[in-house]
Structure formats: structure tokens, C-alpha cells
Amino acid sequence: MTRLPLTAERAARAVREHWLLAILLTCGVALRVCAMVAYRPALLYVDSMKYLYNAYPGADPVGYKAPLKAVLAVGDLGTVAAVQHLLGLAVAVTCYAVLTRRGTARWLAGLAAAPVLLDAYQLQIEQVIMPDVGFEALIVAGIAVLLLRPATPPRVRVVLIAGLVLGVSATFRQVGEILVIPALLYLVAAGGGWRAVATRSVALVVAFAVPIGAYMTGSELITGHFWLDSATPSLASYGRMATAADCATLRIPRYERPLCPSPGQRALGIDWLDHNIASPLKAYVAPAGMNRFAVIASFDHAVALQQPQRVIGAVAVDGAKLFALTRTSAQGESPISRWQFQGSYPHSRNCG
Question: Are 185 and 194 in contact (CB under 8 A)?
Fold first, then answer.
């Protein structure tokens, strides 16, 4: 009997030991090949123009543009999609590896990795020219660095690496800024004495701030603005606050009242209130001598301070939807079809 080469023998043993992951990984690869064949060379979202053609400069962090340009320098949009599919596979394998390293049963770790490998929404974002998959991969990588050594609290060197990786994620999506909080909570829970916890926490915060500070410094040099993005906080939160507000009991100045949506407008949802031309936000004109953004921010603060239970309740309801077994769009929500594979190409009879 011919003996297999050592590498092939190890591979065969790994497949036997991790058979569920091997099956899921094979299915995941097959599904990604189907997506690449069916939607060549890639899918474009309305915000893809920000990263491909610098549309709406400053509207969002553009850390994604660096790897995007690097891939496009040697390939095309199909190559970008292929790289993002590989990242998706790597995310699943990393989750599996961390879980099994920390003592989780292989079958349970395989089930945990299954959504990343098989979920159609995951496949769709990997096929789209958007920073979502890179953001996801950076989060998983940062968490994996912190969790890979289960027996002892992470060393300072490990914490520095994790902080840098998680910090870079904020240059892909600004919401990544909040990741420093759960990372700090983990370091506290990991223990090791208060001095060690304090040292690791400081190391994490400093490392986390380095890529963000570097990005903002670059923004200052290039655009003259020291920011991750130019989105005005008051505008970014208006839709959320306006839908949660009970304007009948809200104590605000008379000149802020036009920002209160009618029941019909509120029913149209956050996306409509933030972006539609007919929204009170778009139509609002501040009194002479007053800054429009400051007035909108004042309205948002009034809702948050006077009716926090309504804001928290609205956020909790939306958060719970992330764990729903099915994905549907309720009235007033952005259409879920934006993140689904379509069966036909959208076109207009008025074109051409």
C-alpha cells in the first residue's frame, strides 16, 4: 500500500477530525462560486460610488479604498468580489478555530460557523463592492487575537495587536469606534490583578487610537478637516430621535416644532425621515441668526434627555430584529431587497 505524503496525510486527518466544518466549508465555497458566476463581475450598491469614484467625499470613512485600489491595480471588480469571498471563508474558519481552541465541541463550533458560510445575506455582501466584509473580518480578527490563548489573560503585545486591528475597523465603518468598549470589558473580566488590567487597558486604548488618529491626521492634511467622516452628528441621529419622540409631551422651543414629524411621516420610518426631500429635516429652516445644525442637535438632545425610555425601547426593538429567524421589512423600514440577490436587472423604460 502506497503511503500518502505527510502533508496529504495531515490533511486527511484534519478532514476526519473536523468533518462538519469540511462539509460546511465545501458548501460555502460552492455557493460563492455560484454567486460569482451569476452576478459578474460584482454587485454595486448606491454607496459603492464613494469608494470607486470618490463620490460624496467625507460622507463616510474610506479606509476600504486602500485595499480596494490595491486589488483593482492587479485585477478587476470580479477579483475584488473573489477576495471578499475568501475573507468570508476566513472569518468562518477563524470563528471555528477560536471556539475549538477554547474548548467548544467541534460540532457546536461548526454550527456557529455555518451562518457565515451559508447565509445568503453574507454571500450578498461579499459580492457587493462595499466595506462590510472587510469591517467584519477586522472585527473577527481583533476578537480572535484577544481570545486565542484561553488559559491566561492576553499579554500586552497581544492587546496592542488587537487594539490596532479593531482601530483600523473604524476607518472602514465609523461605528467601529464603539468596539473599544467591549474589548475593555473583556480585559477587565480576564483579570490578572488591577495593575495588569490597567496596563493592558491603556495599551488597548492607545493602540486603538493610533490608526484612527493616523486616518484623521491624513484627513486634515488632505481635506483640512480632522475627522473620520463629515456626517453631522445631529443629522445622523435625527431619524432615530424623530421616530421615537412623543412630540405632544416634548418640551422644546416653538422654532423646533417644525422638526416634529406628523404621525404619517413618522410611520414612513428612519430612512425616509433622514433622506427624503419631503422630510421635516430637509424642509427645516432655522430662525435668522441661528445655526440650523445646532437647532437640529438641540431637538435630538431634547428627545434623548426627556424621553430616554422611548429611545431605548425603539433601539431595543430594532436590535431584536437582528435575531429574527426571517428577514422582512415592516412599514417605515428600508426595503430588505437592498441586501438580497435579485432575479432581474433593474432598468427604466425612460433610459436610452
Answer: no
Omega of the bond prior to 41 within 30 degrees of 0, cis? yes
Are the C-beta atoms of residues 159 and 200 closer than 8 Å to each other?
yes
d(CA 282, CA 268): 15
- Beta-bridge partner residues of 253: none
CB 162 within 8 A of CB 142: yes
- Cα atoms in the 13 Å half-sphere on the side-chain side of 222: 12
Amino acid identity at 49? M
Amino acid at 119: D
Cβ atoms of 88 and 116 within 8 Å: the answer is yes
Identify whether the C-beta of residue 228 lies closer than 8 Å to the C-beta of residue 184: no
Local confidence band at 28 (pLDDT 50, 70, 90 cut-offs): very high
Segment 55-94, tens digit of pLDDT = 877 667 889 999 999 999 999 999 999 999 999 999 999 9
Phi, psi values for residue 43, rounded to 5°: -100, 145
pLDDT of residue 332: 63
Asked if 94 contacts 315 with a C-beta cutoff of 8 angstroms, the reply is: no
Pairwise CA distance, residues 94 & 146, whole Å = 12
Q: Which residues of 53-81 are buried (b: 16+ CB within 10 A; e: fewer)?
A: eeeeebebbbbbbebbeebeeeeebeebb
DSSP 336: G
Give the Cα separation of 165 and 208 in Å (integer): 8
